[in-house]
């Protein structure tokens, strides 16, 4: 007996179900195999790092105890040096090296890695001087007092200058939590600052640089510096009751990564700055750090249609990605 018009024959229906189940099994097998491989790789990497950490752990513990003895009774001063001065030293060392390239164009080969070709070549000295003044203001008048204020809050959850250093696996867990918290807080505070009323009065200052350079990573209105730069990075150590060593490494990493994100060069073996560089170019895409929330909220859909998205990877060679994955030729009027 023939089936009714528009109905699916029984055999055809069975074939479709079999195809669906087959696809699901293949997907489960691929994902399961990938997960097992990832876990095995992760365990191998962490085992080797743990051996290194353990072997050098006695050395670092001894150095830390020596510091504690030197600053006995003045642990707050040790905290200030570790939580503010060390990260700032990293910031100005990395930014300074990039500023040499931005202002002199030397060494010449680095210009091949420029993301927005023809921009900041060379950088406007007046605009740069004004930006550096703003960065120094934010560091001295905003960041420093906030980090001092953070010390008594941290002590509520445990002494950040306690004698025992964190274990390797605990430190990895802290970094994961810090990164997750920063991603969430930065993404939503950043999107909020793009509200027309807030953008015009606050966030527009940071976007004066449509082609960013490293040092302007902290060039922002003071309100933005508090809400979007400082707080997302500070909340993680508060939640985890972190040791000063973890705090120092975390803030140093945050500053180095934000410099790389703004540097304007897609350099070999470093994290890709294409994502945030595109945000400065277009304003309404790529609000986060990792891109996870941008994917969930669809705020990277235009970016994913560009060559910049294809170049958004770690460059593992010395041929610039702008040469191996060039932009399409501009249409002539």
TrEMBL record:
BP term (GO), one: positive regulation of megakaryocyte differentiation
GO molecular function, one term: iron ion binding
A single Gene Ontology CC term: membrane
Chief place where the protein resides: membrane
Organism taxonomic ancestry: Eukaryota, Metazoa, Chordata, Craniata, Vertebrata
Name of one Pfam family that matches: FA_hydroxylase
Transmembrane segments annotated in the record for this chain: 28-49, 76-101, 135-153, 168-188, 247-267
Subcellular locations according to the entry: Membrane
Record's protein name: Fatty acid hydroxylase domain-containing protein 2 isoform X2
Domain Fatty acid hydroxylase intervals: 176-299
UniProt keywords, alphabetically: Membrane, Transmembrane, Transmembrane helix
InterPro entries assigned to the protein according to its UniProt record, in alphabetical order: Fatty_acid_hydroxylase (IPR006694), Sterol_Desaturase_Related (IPR050307)
